[in-house]
Amino acid sequence: MVSFTASKRVTLPDRETLDITIPPGTRDGQILRLRGKGMPGRNGPPGDMLVEIDVRPHRFFTREGDDIHLELPVSLTEAALGARVEAPTPTGPVALRVPKGSNTGTMLRLKGKGVPSAKKEAGDMFVKLKVVLPDEVSEDFSEYVEKWAKKHHYDPRKKLGW
């Protein structure tokens, strides 16, 4: 599960440690200003510390603005017949309805499951379906597909005008 808030302990040059809370919605490369936590000025109070955020990539999720994207593998049966499948989200798994006749590239939107922000509502999560065949295709499946193909000639490239 992904957390939208993080806490990090940093060690300063004078060996003092400081716990930093990174707020939700913080982006990679963003600079956080910690007022009064910097080095003291000449005959003055301490200045501000600037901390640059480095967000590591996630194994499943990618971020575009406040939206999160996920490529979800589904079986041929789930895509062709439709199904309810479990999909990961940053806040935990959800049941997702795969529409009957889905293709690789079919995009499903989960409203409000994106990155939350202190100033506005959370972004959305976009789930892109990817139809994945088993590593080993059985003989009876191959025979069925061949029989079906003889009755239902279908060229997906024609759909694209190729």
User: What strand order characterises the main sheet?
Assistant: 5-6-10-9
Radius of gyration: 24 Å
Mean pLDDT: 89
User: What would CATH call the architecture of the largest domain?
Assistant: Sandwich
Beta-strand content bin? 25-35%
Short précis:
The protein has helices at 76-81, 139-151, 156-159, and strands at residues 6-11, 17-22, 31-34, 49-52, 61-64, 67-74, 83-87, 94-98, 107-110, 125-131.
Give an overview in words.
The strands form 4 sheets. The chain has a 4-stranded mixed beta sheet with strand order 5-6-10-9. Strands 1-2 form a two-stranded antiparallel sheet. Strands 3-4 form a two-stranded antiparallel ribbon. The chain has 2 domains: 6-52, no CATH class; 61-133, HSP40/DNAj peptide-binding domain, CATH 2.60.260. It has helices at 76-81, 139-151, 156-159, and strands spanning 6-11, 17-22, 31-34, 49-52, 61-64, 67-74, 83-87, 94-98, 107-110, 125-131. The relative contact order is 0.14. It is 14% helix and 33% strand.
What is this structure's SSE topology?
Layout: E1 6-11, E2 17-22, E3 31-34, E4 49-52, E5 61-64, E6 67-74, H1 76-81, E7 83-87, E8 94-98, E9 107-110, E10 125-131, H2 139-151, H3 156-159
